[in-house]
Protein backbone atom coordinates (compact mmCIF):
# COMPACT_ATOMS: atom_id res chain seq x y z
CA UNK A 1 0.00 0.00 0.00
CA UNK A 2 2.92 2.38 0.65
CA UNK A 3 3.63 2.78 -3.09
CA UNK A 4 0.03 3.59 -4.05
CA UNK A 5 -0.39 7.16 -5.22
CA UNK A 6 -3.74 8.91 -5.12
CA UNK A 7 -4.85 12.50 -5.59
CA UNK A 8 -3.79 13.13 -1.98
CA UNK A 9 -0.25 12.00 -2.87
CA UNK A 10 1.01 13.96 -5.88
CA UNK A 11 3.79 12.57 -8.04
CA UNK A 12 7.27 13.14 -6.64
CA UNK A 13 10.66 14.01 -8.01
CA UNK A 14 12.86 10.97 -8.59
CA UNK A 15 14.90 9.69 -5.66
CA UNK A 16 18.09 10.84 -7.41
CA UNK A 17 16.66 14.35 -7.87
CA UNK A 18 15.62 14.53 -4.21
CA UNK A 19 19.00 13.34 -2.92
CA UNK A 20 20.90 15.74 -5.19
CA UNK A 21 18.59 18.62 -4.22
CA UNK A 22 19.06 18.16 -0.48
CA UNK A 23 22.80 17.54 -0.78
CA UNK A 24 23.07 20.80 -2.75
CA UNK A 25 20.99 22.56 -0.08
CA UNK A 26 23.33 21.41 2.71
CA UNK A 27 26.46 22.44 0.82
CA UNK A 28 25.10 25.81 -0.28
CA UNK A 29 23.71 26.62 3.17
CA UNK A 30 27.12 25.90 4.72
CA UNK A 31 29.11 27.63 1.99
CA UNK A 32 27.23 30.94 2.23
CA UNK A 33 27.97 31.54 5.92
CA UNK A 34 31.54 30.31 5.47
CA UNK A 35 31.97 32.89 2.70
CA UNK A 36 30.42 35.66 4.76
CA UNK A 37 32.45 34.91 7.88
CA UNK A 38 35.82 34.23 6.23
CA UNK A 39 36.19 37.87 5.16
CA UNK A 40 35.42 39.35 8.59
CA UNK A 41 38.13 41.44 10.25
CA UNK A 42 39.70 40.10 13.43
CA UNK A 43 39.15 36.44 12.65
CA UNK A 44 42.01 34.21 13.78
CA UNK A 45 44.16 33.05 10.88
CA UNK A 46 43.53 29.30 11.44
CA UNK A 47 39.75 29.83 11.43
CA UNK A 48 39.94 32.09 8.39
CA UNK A 49 42.16 29.63 6.50
CA UNK A 50 39.79 26.75 7.29
CA UNK A 51 36.78 28.73 6.05
CA UNK A 52 38.61 29.77 2.86
CA UNK A 53 39.66 26.16 2.21
CA UNK A 54 36.11 24.93 2.69
CA UNK A 55 34.45 27.69 0.67
CA UNK A 56 36.68 27.57 -2.40
CA UNK A 57 36.96 23.77 -2.55
CA UNK A 58 33.25 23.04 -2.05
CA UNK A 59 32.30 25.35 -4.93
CA UNK A 60 33.32 22.86 -7.63
CA UNK A 61 31.46 20.10 -5.76
CA UNK A 62 28.33 22.25 -5.93
CA UNK A 63 28.95 22.78 -9.65
CA UNK A 64 29.20 19.02 -10.18
CA UNK A 65 25.96 18.51 -8.23
CA UNK A 66 24.17 21.11 -10.35
CA UNK A 67 25.37 19.42 -13.55
CA UNK A 68 24.21 16.05 -12.19
CA UNK A 69 20.86 17.57 -11.24
CA UNK A 70 20.40 18.87 -14.77
CA UNK A 71 21.26 15.45 -16.21
CA UNK A 72 18.78 13.79 -13.84
CA UNK A 73 16.19 16.39 -14.80
CA UNK A 74 16.59 15.43 -18.48
CA UNK A 75 16.54 11.68 -17.78
CA UNK A 76 13.73 11.88 -15.22
CA UNK A 77 11.71 15.08 -15.75
CA UNK A 78 10.12 16.69 -12.71
CA UNK A 79 6.50 15.84 -11.98
CA UNK A 80 3.96 18.26 -13.42
CA UNK A 81 2.62 20.98 -11.19
CA UNK A 82 -0.81 20.12 -9.79
CA UNK A 83 -3.72 21.65 -11.67
CA UNK A 84 -4.67 23.48 -8.46
CA UNK A 85 -1.51 25.61 -8.72
CA UNK A 86 -2.27 28.90 -10.50
CA UNK A 87 -0.38 29.27 -13.79
CA UNK A 88 1.41 32.40 -12.61
CA UNK A 89 2.77 30.55 -9.55
CA UNK A 90 3.85 27.62 -11.72
CA UNK A 91 5.65 30.04 -14.04
CA UNK A 92 7.35 31.83 -11.15
CA UNK A 93 8.39 28.47 -9.67
CA UNK A 94 9.96 27.43 -12.99
CA UNK A 95 11.76 30.74 -13.43
CA UNK A 96 13.12 30.64 -9.86
CA UNK A 97 14.33 27.04 -10.32
CA UNK A 98 16.22 27.90 -13.52
CA UNK A 99 17.61 31.08 -11.97
CA UNK A 100 18.86 29.04 -9.01
CA UNK A 101 20.69 26.67 -11.37
CA UNK A 102 22.17 29.55 -13.40
CA UNK A 103 23.18 31.54 -10.32
CA UNK A 104 24.88 28.54 -8.71
CA UNK A 105 26.88 27.93 -11.88
CA UNK A 106 27.77 31.63 -12.16
CA UNK A 107 28.85 31.75 -8.51
CA UNK A 108 31.11 28.73 -8.77
CA UNK A 109 32.68 29.81 -12.05
CA UNK A 110 33.25 33.38 -10.83
CA UNK A 111 34.74 32.03 -7.59
CA UNK A 112 37.08 29.75 -9.48
CA UNK A 113 38.12 32.61 -11.77
CA UNK A 114 38.66 34.86 -8.75
CA UNK A 115 40.86 32.25 -7.03
CA UNK A 116 42.94 31.31 -10.08
CA UNK A 117 43.32 34.83 -11.49
CA UNK A 118 44.21 35.96 -7.98
CA UNK A 119 47.07 33.47 -7.94
CA UNK A 120 45.62 31.39 -5.12
CA UNK A 121 45.48 27.60 -4.99
CA UNK A 122 42.37 25.43 -5.08
CA UNK A 123 44.06 22.74 -3.08
CA UNK A 124 41.79 19.79 -3.86
CA UNK A 125 41.13 20.84 -7.45
CA UNK A 126 44.55 22.07 -8.61
CA UNK A 127 45.57 18.67 -10.02
CA UNK A 128 42.49 18.77 -12.28
CA UNK A 129 41.94 22.45 -13.08
CA UNK A 130 44.94 24.31 -11.70
CA UNK A 131 46.66 26.66 -14.11
CA UNK A 132 43.66 27.25 -16.36
CA UNK A 133 44.10 30.98 -15.85
CA UNK A 134 47.20 33.10 -15.46
CA UNK A 135 47.43 35.57 -12.64
CA UNK A 136 45.43 38.66 -13.64
CA UNK A 137 44.60 41.22 -10.96
CA UNK A 138 41.90 42.97 -13.03
CA UNK A 139 40.17 39.71 -13.92
CA UNK A 140 40.34 38.56 -10.29
CA UNK A 141 38.81 41.83 -9.14
CA UNK A 142 36.02 41.68 -11.75
CA UNK A 143 35.26 38.06 -10.84
CA UNK A 144 35.18 39.00 -7.16
CA UNK A 145 32.71 41.84 -7.81
CA UNK A 146 30.51 39.56 -9.92
CA UNK A 147 30.69 36.88 -7.21
CA UNK A 148 29.43 39.41 -4.64
CA UNK A 149 26.45 40.38 -6.81
CA UNK A 150 25.63 36.76 -7.64
CA UNK A 151 25.81 35.89 -3.92
CA UNK A 152 23.13 38.47 -3.17
CA UNK A 153 20.97 37.20 -6.04
CA UNK A 154 21.35 33.63 -4.76
CA UNK A 155 20.31 34.60 -1.25
CA UNK A 156 17.16 36.30 -2.58
CA UNK A 157 16.34 33.28 -4.77
CA UNK A 158 16.86 30.89 -1.85
CA UNK A 159 14.55 32.97 0.34
CA UNK A 160 11.90 32.97 -2.41
CA UNK A 161 12.24 29.22 -2.96
CA UNK A 162 12.29 28.32 0.75
CA UNK A 163 9.40 30.71 1.43
CA UNK A 164 7.29 29.11 -1.27
CA UNK A 165 8.20 25.63 -0.01
CA UNK A 166 7.22 26.60 3.54
CA UNK A 167 3.96 28.11 2.32
CA UNK A 168 3.04 24.94 0.44
CA UNK A 169 4.27 22.58 3.17
CA UNK A 170 3.06 24.37 6.28
CA UNK A 171 0.21 26.66 5.25
CA UNK A 172 -1.48 25.31 2.14
CA UNK A 173 -0.54 21.67 2.71
CA UNK A 174 -1.34 21.06 -0.94
CA UNK A 175 1.22 18.31 -1.56
CA UNK A 176 3.70 20.44 -3.51
CA UNK A 177 6.33 20.28 -0.75
CA UNK A 178 6.02 16.49 -0.55
CA UNK A 179 7.17 16.28 -4.19
CA UNK A 180 10.72 16.95 -2.89
CA UNK A 181 10.39 15.68 0.70
CA UNK A 182 11.54 13.40 2.20
CA UNK A 183 15.01 13.45 0.64
CA UNK A 184 15.20 9.66 0.12
Automatic annotation (TrEMBL):
KW Transmembrane helix (keyword) present: yes
InterPro entries for this protein: Cyt_b561_bac/Ni-Hgenase, Cytochrome_b561_oxidase, Di-haem_cyt_TM
Keyword Iron recorded: yes
Localization in the cell: Cell membrane
SUPFAM superfamilies: Transmembrane di-heme cytochromes (SSF81342)
Pfam family membership, one: Ni_hydr_CYTB
Topology in the lipid bilayer: Multi-pass membrane protein
Ranges that cross the membrane: 20-38, 58-76, 88-113, 149-171
Cofactor dependence: heme b
Main localization (coarse): membrane
Coiled-coil portions: none
Keywords assigned: Cell membrane, Electron transport, Heme, Iron, Membrane, Metal-binding, Transmembrane, Transmembrane helix, Transport
Ranges of residues in domain Cytochrome b561 bacterial/Ni-hydrogenase: 12-182
Family: Belongs to the cytochrome b561 family.
Stated name of the protein: Cytochrome b
Amino acid sequence: MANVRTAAYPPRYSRAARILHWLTVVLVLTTIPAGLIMVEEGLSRPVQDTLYLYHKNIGPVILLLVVLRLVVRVVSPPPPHPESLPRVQALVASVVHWLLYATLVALVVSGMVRVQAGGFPMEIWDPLIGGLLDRDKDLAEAASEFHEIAKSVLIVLILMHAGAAAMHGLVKRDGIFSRMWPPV
